[in-house]
Write a structure and sequence with these properties.
- One of its GO terms (cellular component) is peroxisomal membrane.
- GO terms for molecular function: alcohol-forming long-chain fatty acyl-CoA reductase activity; alcohol-forming very long-chain fatty acyl-CoA reductase activity.
- Its EC number is 1.2.1.84.
- The longest helix has 31 residues.
- The chain has 2 domains: 301 residues, 3-Layer(aba) Sandwich (Rossmann fold); 62 residues.
- α6 links the parallel β4 and β5.
- The strands form 4 sheets. It has a 7-stranded parallel sheet, with helices on both faces. Strands 6-13 form a two-stranded parallel ribbon. The chain has a two-stranded parallel ribbon with strand order 8-10.
- The protein contains 19 helices and 13 strands.
- With 515 residues, it is an alpha/beta fold.
- Bound molecules: Palmitoyl-CoA and NADPH dihydro-nicotinamide-adenine-dinucleotide phosphate.
- The site of NADPH dihydro-nicotinamide-adenine-dinucleotide phosphate has 27 residues, from α2 and β8.
């Protein structure tokens, strides 16, 4: 049987969401490990004053593509951007482009989605469900299509504790929901959203579940694979360890903790942290594309792409390794020394938010105000609290995913493909991965230079000295206000001191006796 790279040789591939985190890694890996691939058609929209061509050429200049550039400096010739706004009718693809795509595309990878947890339902539905349906309609017109791979999420069915590799009945018939929301005003939709999403925490997981159902409906006409990654993190090995380019999911939390801003968060120390490296997800996706096209399974195959059941790691361990990594490789200009703690106790968390977040923010803003600058810390903390409030649902509980199809797929790969498209997470060394992840956030998200680490360490020492000085001043202040002025406080103070003194004398006497 043809190897994965042999299969992709001469093939035309259509990718949505190529400018996103996972899409970029997919494009890079295809170009690097399947160098004979014919053309990659990327559906891209113009954004922030940039045309789609400018966006794609900027993307190809990014460090992620360094290895491909080395192997083949002309790799950009294989990339053809196609203008498309997925929320528009017929995906806003021109008739000429439709003609071109329908005549030559062999395989589709559908990565585009809104992954925001606070997306209004109508917009999430438009992009995650309606656009998926429109892409499926386009796929059906393609003369040479061999596989349609849809990227879903392991949390699409997070209302269940155990999740098999099947498509569960949708919470509502997608078409009925689309039809009824069409005429409703946004304010009404906002009001009924909590009732609609039910046990799911947000519109993202809800619409991703509906999208799976829409995809499944076409499985008699198309060969379909559905990939369900859990929490996608920085790369493990490829193209280099620790690559990450966004603040989503845990990355923003790690950065906020490394900067000393985040000191407390609600999470369950003993719950499995189902992180999955982005390169693992992409290797599995490409292998699933190959398998779907070659074996043409009768029903859509679902691949739960998770680590918890195979090589579990827990939030408590993540906290420990993130903190020790940022102490070894500090971020520049930290607000305080990194020292975040996770707790599942609501009251404890609220206490630490008050003492370790709001109080220092208040003092710092006061300092900014007094020095004629604009206060900003409270605003940053409010945004942080909103973000972690949306993530806590995922860090406070456990899920169990069946990953038989991932194992089945692995068993079909040749030894060579298993190495080139490695998704065997049993080999993942978590402490090393987390260290590279934290360094990756420093280098690639914050664009900080590793040569500045000595200065960053010096800054942490300065913060430690400020803390010692502040604590001493606080003690002196308490002394002045309470002890020196009130007879009762003085009596309590003398009582505590004499008690300590008695204890000391007792221990000294008993240790002399035993000697
Ligand atoms: C040590 C502790 C260990 C414990 C550690 C537990 C971790 C527990 C993780 C669970 C993780 C589950 C993940 C589920 C798995 C999926 O299914 S994956 C889908 C994942 N999706 C997400 O993570 C999206 C979540 N994010 C959101 O929904 C929105 O970003 C939020 C949180 C509502 C914030 O919205 P917003 O306030 O409008 O801010 P947003 O527009 O996103 O960003 C504004 C700017 O701030 C920047 N920014 C965003 N976040 C940050 C940040 N944290 N810091 C600095 N800047 C930031 C942005 O880059 C952006 O910059 P510009 O582009 O404007 O220059
Ligand atoms: N990140 C994660 O932890 C996880 C992600 N997933 C799934 O993986 C897939 C990729 O996620 P990820 O790469 O992280 O997401 P990103 O937010 O990084 O990328 C989303 C992509 O979708 C594109 N897109 C969004 N709206 C439109 C639109 N209206 N028209 C055209 N393109 C649009 C974006 O383009 P533009 O650059 O123009 O905005 C971008 O390329 C998604 O389906 C997501 O549900 C699943 C589990 C976890």
């Amino acid at each position: 049987m043809a190897s994965i790279a042999d299969y992709y040789a001469g093939k035309n591939v259509l990718i949505t969401g190529a400018t996103g985190f996972m899409g970029k890694v997919l494009v890079e890996k295809l170009l690097r490990s399947c160098p004979e691939v014919q053309t990659l058609y990327l559906l891209v929209r113009p954004k922030a004053g940039q045309s789609m061509q400018e966006r794609v050429s900027d993307m190809m200049k990014c460090k992620l593509f360094d290895r491909v550039r080395e192997d083949n400096p002309d790799f950009h010739q294989k990339i053809v951007p196609i203008s498309s706004e997925l929320t528009q009718p017929a995906l806003a693809i021109s008739p000429e482009d439709v003609e071109r795509l329908t005549s030559c595309v062999n395989i589709i990878f559908h990565c585009a989605a809104t992954i925001r947890f606070d997306e209004p339902l109508k917009h999430a539905l438009q992009l995650n469900v309606i656009a998926t349906q429109q892409l499926l309609n386009l796929a059906q017109q393609m003369h040479h299509l061999q596989a349609f791979i849809h990227i879903s999420t392991a949390y699409a069915n997070c209302n269940r504790r155990h999740i098999d590799e099947i498509i569960y009945p949708p919470p509502v018939e997608p078409k009925k929901l689309i039809d009824s929301l069409e005429w409703m005003e946004d304010s009404i939709v906002r009001d009924i959203t909590p009732r609609l999403i039910g046990e799911r925490p947000n519109t993202y997981t809800y619409t991703k579940a509906l999208a799976e159902c829409v995809v499944q409906k076409e499985s008699s006409k198309l060969s379909i694979g559905i990939i369900r990654p859990s929490i996608v993190g920085a790369s493990w090995q490829e193209p280099f360890p620790g690559w990450i380019d966004n603040f989503n999911g845990p990355s923003g939390v790690f950065i906020a903790a490394g900067k000393g801003i985040l000191r407390t968060m609600r999470a369950n120390n003993d719950a499995v942290a189902d992180l999955i490296p982005v390169d693992v997800v992409i290797n599995l996706t490409l292998a699933a594309g190959w398998y779907t096209a070659v074996h043409r399974p009768k029903a859509a195959l679902v691949y739960n792409c998770t680590t918890g059941g195979i090589n579990p790691f827990h939030w408590g361990e993540i906290e420990h390794h993130v903190m020790s990594s940022f102490k070894r490789n500090p971020l520049e200009q930290a607000f305080r020394r990194p020292n975040a703690n996770i707790t599942s106790n609501y009251l404890m968390n609220q206490y630490w938010i008050l003492v370790s977040h709001k109080f220092p923010a208040l003092i710092y803003d006061l300092y900014l105000r007094l020095s004629g600058q604009k206060p900003q810390m409270m605003r940053i903390f409010n945004r942080l609290h909103k973000a972690i409030g949306l993530l806590e649902y995922f860090s406070s509980q456990d899920w169990e995913w069946n990953s038989e199809n991932m194992n089945m797929l692995m068993s079909h790969l040749s030894p060579e493909d298993r190495k080139t498209f490695n998704f065997d997470v049993r080999q993942l060394n978590w402490p090393e991965y987390i260290e590279n992840y934290c360094i990756g956030t420093k280098k690639y998200v914050l664009n900080e230079d590793m040569s500045d680490i000595p200065a960053a360490r010096q800054h942490l020492r300065k913060l430690r000295n400020i803390r010692y000085t502040f604590n001493t001043l606080l003690l002196v202040f308490i002394w002045r206000v309470f002890i020196a002025r009130s007879q009762m406080a003085r009596n309590i103070w003398y009582f505590v001191v004499s008690l300590c003194f008695k204890f000391l004398s007792y221990f000294r006497a008993s240790s002399t006796l035993t000697n």
